[in-house]
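Just curious: can you write a single protein's sequence together with how it folds?
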Amino acid sequence: MNITFPKITNWFGGNAKKRSGSGLTTAEWIRGDDLDNHQTKFVMPYAQSAWVYVAVSVLAQTVAHIPFRFSRGRPKGEELVESGPIVDLFRQPASGVTRTLFWRTLVSWEALRGEFFIVPLDETGRVLKPVRGALPKQLMTLSPDHMQEIVRRNELVGWRCVAPEGASQVAAQLLLPEEVIHSRSFNPYHYWRGLSPLSVAMMAAQSDFAAGQFMKALMENNGDAGVIITSNSVLSDEQRTQITSKLLSRKRSNGIADRPILLDGNLTVQKPMISSADMQFLDNRRLNREEIGAIYKVPESMMGFGDEKSGLSAGTAMQQDRLNFIENTITGLCRRLESALEPIIQSFDPELHGWFDIDSLPIMQTARRDRLVSAEKAFAMGVPFNEINELFGLGFRPMPWGNKGFVNQNLVELGDVAGVRTSRPQQRELQAVLPDHPTNPEVAVGRMLELVEGTRTSNAQLPTSNVEPEKQKPNGKLRRFLFEQRNRALAHLEQEFGFLHVRFQRGEDIEPLLDAQRENEFLFERLGLADGLVVEENEKRLAELNDVVRKGLESDEDFAEVAHRVKRIFTGN
């Protein structure tokens, strides 16, 4: 039985010289030239460049995982909106489009084209204008490649959507400018369209793609760059076909050792060596990766390459990279998305605001704790709480007392008469002492410090006879103990004042300001031996401390006023 085959030309149609779309003749395709002469072009950077894909994916995934919240009155307000039509809309923006996919699509188009388009639709799929009362049921994202601007007399009059059938849920049609949410980056070369970051990164992406193709071809050829065969005579077509066939059969055995080749005739085989420039393609790929990451503002550690950060500081360095990435890249991108979607959100209610809750991220919570440490130091310097809250971005609500500054009044500057704070009776006594001895500042300063501490110097230490005899002052050890006890009382009052105020309002028992047993231990530790009168006076003073604190709370006094009551116990005024 004879079997006849159709001519090879019939398999490819009437014109069999070239294969459709390949640029190869039929004979070249039969010989297998298409396996080694790839005409691959870099036309899809997001799919063909690993670094572009990673950088864009990191941006999109980070934004998509940040909660998007709604509040009424002001952005990040206390009145959160957690249910309703607008919450349902952004939970499922369109049919088959989840919340995560919606945000990833917007950010990806922004990274690849420098702009994104959103069209609000009603329940029937008709395009809506985002105005008050027109509540959209779907939010459809459009490819910037399918949008053409219509400009008349330097004015945008519409958009022409040329999406092919099956490429989008929005059919090809004309759209008014107010029916399209268009957000674009700055483009000095085209006013109506955005400038894509990819256009800047294209050179690095193409170079990296070429380096990847070189590496792929080198691996497919078992690391062999091929051979060059030369002949002293002209080879016939049969000889050329025979040599080429043997070389191809040798190269098509990937993963196994190369087989020897036996060639007839006076032929010379030369093996070319890889140049030094070709051997540096790995370093070039690293440079291309860094360049693409810098254009998209994505650190290398976020792209999965943290080999440069090792040792004990690796975790801290990578955490700092992530914090800088959130603050410098993601925050600005989120603010741009919030601004673009504001017309859609306010079509539900002019008082509504949508915002990304960036502060809820764990990395931002850690950064806030670090800011609280700095804020605490500023508060100790007397900076008002509300001003600190705004300056450091702590996120607390303004306090009624937050415009007042509070300082620790336990410190007195030595050698500065004007810096010593005294009560009015003490000031009158100072005026009686200081004028008599203007030429002896050391005695005056010492006298002032003793008055502030509630002590008196002996008559022998005062070089004046006009001062009336005072009661015998405590000795130096007891004076030191009283000074330390006052500091402990004020420090404990400052630390527990808020809790004391709350317990008093609830009618709960207020704990003593200082523990009597502990203070007696301090007294014996400081004096060594103390008679019963000193111990009795100490316990009486502690009871008086508790009484003045309770009186201050009953009068609804602030911390400064209650602290002044405590100081008067030690100054004797």
Summary: The longest strand covers residues 115-121. Residues 417-473 form one domain.
